[in-house]
Write a structure and sequence with these properties.
about 650 residues; Beta-Lactamase; Alpha-Beta Plaits; TIM Barrel; 3 domains; eight-stranded mixed beta barrel; five-stranded mixed β-sheet; 21 helices; rod-shaped
Amino acid sequence: MTLSKQLIALISLIFIAIFLANLKTSTDSIQEYLQKESQSHARSTAISLGLTLKPYISDDTDIILETMVNAVFDSGFYQEIAVSDPAGKVLITKTNPTTFQDVPLWFTDFFQMDSATAEQDISEDQGDKQLLGHVKVTVHKGMGYLKLWEQAKQTFIYSIVMLAIFIVVLVVALRVLLNPLARIENLARQIADGEFNLIDKLPGTIEIRNVAQSMNLMSGKLEKVISNLNKRLEESGKKLSMDPLTGLDTRPGFETSMKQRFMAKGQGFILIIKIFELGPYASKNSPKKVDEFIKHFVLTIKNVLKDQNQEIQQFFRIMGSEFVLLVNLKNREQAEILSGQILNALAEMGKGMDKPNVAHIGGVMFDPHGTTAQMIAAANEAYEKACLVGDNSYVIAENSGNSYDSDEWKEIVRSAIDNDQVELSFTAQAYSLANKEKLLLEETMSRVLDNNGDPLAIGTFISIAEKIDRIADFDMLVINKVIDHIRLHNVTYDIAINLSFTTLANGPFLSSLAQLLKDNNDIAHHLVFSVTAYGAAKDTEAFSRFIDFAHRNGAKVILKRYESKFLRIDQIKAFKLDYIRLARVYTEKISIDAEKRDLVKAVKEMGDLLDISILAEAVESDSDYEAVREIGLDGASR
């Protein structure tokens, strides 16, 4: 019950109690007054009637006696009038029934009234004591009850009207008075959702005003905390994903870019550029000179890319002497021209640095139906061939070695989905860091087989399924298998299910999923739908709507492979996530990397503020595992 309703109920009860007490008191007073008035009326009537009858009472046959008694009886509300002779013989008696219809029985039972009775002797004269007769008058108490009932009804109606007016005024007053509390409640909910707004118009009531000011203060402080965490994450994230010497993205950035290209069904070429015999060069020169050489090497390539209008952000340093370029070129001829221009520029640079053979390039066209591993292997093979060609040479491979063409892949995907050639395994078990025996979450991994029973490249399979609009069928197939697994094995922990981002906005899929979750509402809370940080960043509004959808239907959502370069904290706070699983790059060698430790601490603080469980992914070493446990993450997989 709301505070306003409680106050209205309490004040109304007090009002009713006061009204009832006042009604009882006033009714008792009126009852006492009517009792006395009835007694007085009975006495005066008895005296008056006695004087009137005195001249005629000596003759009990005189018709005038009865006429006078009737006249008095009919002119008032009497229960009984009796006239008797000195011996007590009743000469005349007139009576009315004791019951009456105008007043409820419960009222007469609650307010007891006595009948007022008066007696008067009739004497010969004032000085003579000779008794002529006796008059007894009893006033009917119904008259008193009727007056008392009418008065009580008027008082009750008046009080009800006043109560109604009072409640209306009270409701309006409470609405005005408690409206600031609604704003305070709304602010509290906004803070819980990560929106740190302020109450601009402070209420006039001192106590409520103080609460509003406290809420504003808390909101402002939390906003500063989130802002500081966001800055720390951005700075630390940039340092982790950037080579400190060259400023280039590192291997994690390359892997992410490849995933982006697969999801976007992109095109272009992968060029592996390796500095030739950097080790021997470093052994003959100082570290400073080697660093200067690498910086000039990178700058030279960037200048060539700039001249050719290529995207510089697709340039990565994989390790010491190995670099990768992702370039948006349409055909092999363009890739060869660019490779030649890069190597010519590097050769010119090498002349001034006593290193004529600077580098070799091996390239391959991006294959949306292949895998990263296949394309890197093909590019490395091309690089080895380039080394055999001669100084500063390149080789661009014909293809990535993918064994199926586009049409074959489409048929394989259709067949695998239609014939349920999908197997599930459950990996990446995340155990609680506070209780190593408690399994929090495990991830579903799909294994798709071709018609010969051989496993297919899952990345390529997903890409083709999206292209031919069968990805929703595949995701639904996996979800049903997970539900069967939960029921068969009485699973009590959460299971993450990877979803393609294109599925999240698929109306028919969501309708079917809602019905499926409704039919399995007893286990829906164990289903955790998993979306990559990169996928969520593509359309944050669609992702936010899917989270609301999942929560409405009893399921959960995890954001996996989280890196701050994809989503800032101020974006995450609006998502109302259940889990965040950090990218492996954040926890790898965290035990010896203070920068990573600070970054993960910042994410953990964010999780505590937003009530999100933070998990670490694939922690290898015991020292790293101990580090994330000390930081206080909720769970980790090994």
